[in-house]
Records
---
Amino acid sequence: MMIPWGGVGCCLSAAALYLLGRSSGRDAEVLRSVARTGSLKDLAAILDAASKVLPLVVAVSGRVSSDTPLVCQQSGMRGVIVEETAEQHFLKHNDAGSWIQDSAVMLSVSKEVPWYLDDGTGRVYVVGARSAAGLVLTVASEVFEESGRTLVRGTLDYLQGLKMLGVKRTERVLPTGTSLTVVGEAIKDDVGTIRIQRPHKGPFYASPKSIDQLILNLGKWAKLYKLASMGFAAFGVFLLAKRALEHFLQKKRQHEFHRKARAAAAQRQAREAEDGTSAGEPNSKKDQLVLEICVICLEQEYNAVFVPCGHMCCWMDHAESSTIVRGRGRNKRKWTWDEDEELVKALCEVSLDPRFRVQGGGFKNCYTQGIESLLAQRLPGHGIKASPHVDSRLKVLKRKFYSIKDMLASPGFSWDGSKKVVRCEKERIILEPRV
């Protein structure tokens, strides 16, 4: 039984989506359970009242501020986190001989200064916000600087298969004054400074959305993941069940065939026992005849092997009874000697008929139809058609005729009209060594 990899893949995808949905749902439940502060000044009292053993995960909101903000070089914006990237754009000569556009990062710099959230009642410093989930930096500026073209630079680029277009410089910043919600572990040092950092276990978010919006989005994604997992699981189970049903029906058909084969073998042995053909003679082979009979007549022992599959399931008379052989071409026909003889006679008659001849020699396009009508009169019931039977057979006969003609044109070969064979002088035969 072949493994239905499509169904297995759908089931594995369903399991992965289910785990993602479960993780999102778990994060949403954790966010619902975190402590919320109405104002930052209340956070100090909450920390003093909290247990010293377990970490305190809270959600705070405020505006981004810093005593020493960074200033962007391109846009002049003030921020607490600044990322600068320089990306080289160029055309690359590929193997097909055309130019394709590509890019490569030349420079990536990230800067961050100590910053805090301020709601007018207090301050809470944020540590390690770059690794927090949901943090999106604002694009402050994008500048494209075209590369200068000189003769030396152009020659070097041509030798390397490159055409420099320019450099794209991008600045991303977390501006001061941005409203931000941070979910993390709150700690208080010896001097009374309160910080929010990544907890050892638990969520760590820094997003412009409120805590309620974060919970709503996580719950929505959890539902979508679970619905998608249910769809993939249903489709995967359908594919697995379909393959299992096909395998069951195949085994059932095989069992039914074996039952019929055993019944046919039993009937044959019963007839042979009545006729006395096997009385008094040990015949162990016929005792094992259950699976060795022809699948067509269910009577004779099989003795024909089909090439190239190697199946041995038919009796020779059944294998040769059909005049149409299925092969690489469609409706191949096995011609008999009588049919070939009548075909040649019909061809000679058509060659003398002015309806099918053209001036200067040759035949009209419809001459094979004349041959078909003559063969239908002389060989009724054989079903020989002009196309593809007559056309295909004439091609074979022409190929053999020209092969014999080339042989007779060579010295030492002659035609024996009585036996219809090509004769060759003994000294003309050249034996070539086998490789």
---
Amino acid sequence: MTDETPANAPVKPGDLLAGKYRVDRVLGQGGMGVVVAATHTHLGQRVALKFLLPDLAARQDIVARFDREARAAVRIQSEHVARVLDTGVLESGAPYMVMEFLEGQDLQQLVRARGRLEPAEAAGYILQACECLAEAHVAGIVHRDIKPANLFLTRRADGSPLVKVLDFGISKANLLSGEGPASAPLTQTAAMMGSPKYMSPEQLKSSRDVDARTDIWALGVVLHELLTGEAAFLASTMAELCMAILSHPPPPLRSRRPDAPAGIEAAILRCLEKEPARRYPSVAEFAVDLAEFAPHERVSAERVLRVLQSNGQATQVALPPPAAAGAQGATATAARTATTASSVSAAHAPPAPQAQLAQTAPSTQHPGTSPQFNQGISHQGISHQGISHPHAQAPGPPMVSYPPPPMHGVPHHGPTPHGSPPQGPGMHPGGSYGPSYAPPLQPGYGQQLTHPPAPPPYPQGPVAYGQPPPHGRSGTLHPSTIALIVLVSLLVLGIGSCSMCVCLGAAAGG
């Protein structure tokens, strides 16, 4: 990018074109034209304007080539082509093209700034370029000038990288609208079309007699340069460069980049086959081979396949499932499943036998305290009887509680009686977790505690909550209670009041 206006530029900053485009600054200049940043005065939209240099605007073949670039670009709907918004002619007769404004840098600038790229990144950029070329090839358009400087790296709205293919100016188009003869002057054999370092052997011989496989050759050369930082074929003169491309075998990628994957090296060598018939027949096969090394851009390979197959091409090509990603996903899924199963098994494991619990469950009652005091004690991060604790409010797995053992060989299906103190081996009156139940345990929070054994059958009489059990044998009645029952029965049967008083006195004395 430069802020200096070339002396032979057809416009300068501040100029208003077509009554709506105000020129802001110069973005760059090439051998044929200049590109400036401009603003649509009514919409406030930033655009890029491309012009032919004045000395070339008088050549009909160059003007036709300029027009072809705009026509080819609008026929490709991919997001990976720089969109052409409008075309026009200045009062001087020089044509111009209005394009979307792009912020970023081309891949040539990227490699110069950073050096060689990582295989996954480089393969991802080439896959995005393949998307654009798939649509172009289906439309009968061969770019013929694929090179790092024509692959522009910008960003999507979400920040992800986006490669745009630029400059279809020397593309060979089989225009289906009957405009083929008009393009004949642009495909003269003597014309040097493209950048020699990226041209295929057949393009060096004749730019007219090329097809989509010349773009595949160029993609292989570009990928080699992205991974090594230097061109595939090196020479000091144009004659030596042409001789190397036409007759010398391409250098293996790993001779310059030993850590490169063998699969990428094989893909590049196939792109650089001298005979077009030995290369990939379409960008679909090339994209399928590259997808393994750029899983984050696998969607690009899928789109390339769909574009070509919807037009009857590459119908025998299929993208294999992502084996590595699938295996990693399966391993992670299996690990999560095993962890979950282990947690569920531990949470729902049946209680240990009563005798074993009686032997292993330690007494947690604090010495010198009453059962009522122990009911509110918080143990290892678990709070009971309304005593708060920081961990008590934290979310966690469902609570697990243990039912009492069967009563006299009969399974107990009802809830644990609440309000009766537990009795039995290994238990303390009132219990250290409350008078009538073993508290639920929250797995994962605090230390795992061993539950005391569940209580045996309880007496049916009304016993105060948290009080020690009554003395004497459980299940018998006091003699005074029996006497009271007898007197009530006699009263109901109608016995006289005199005898009733005597009996009541006897009962009271007994």
---
Amino acid sequence: MNIDKYPYMDTTGMAATYPPPPPYMQPHETVVVTSVPTVVVRYNCTDTPTITVCPACRQNITTRIERSPGLMTWLLCGGLALVGCIAGCCLIPFCVGSCQDVDHYCPNCNHHIYKYKRM
């Protein structure tokens, strides 16, 4: 048997291999790719109201802030109590805004945007 004459024939006698199928034309398709821009907003919120874009309502806003006691407030209270300010002076950090954490909210939809923690 001549291998050059029959290149797709199995010489072992076990099974015959077949030639690959003829090439065919695929239908011509037009693919339109649309992408939605991904906006990554990095909040530079500190303890003051910040101008930003609300992720919920997509409006340009100046955040509304609310202060709440955080770790720094409690540590200062405990430190003042250890020093001897037990007669109510250890509660001063709860009245000082710069000792507390700050929550930033959207004034339009009241969405919580960011929490600024002192510690």
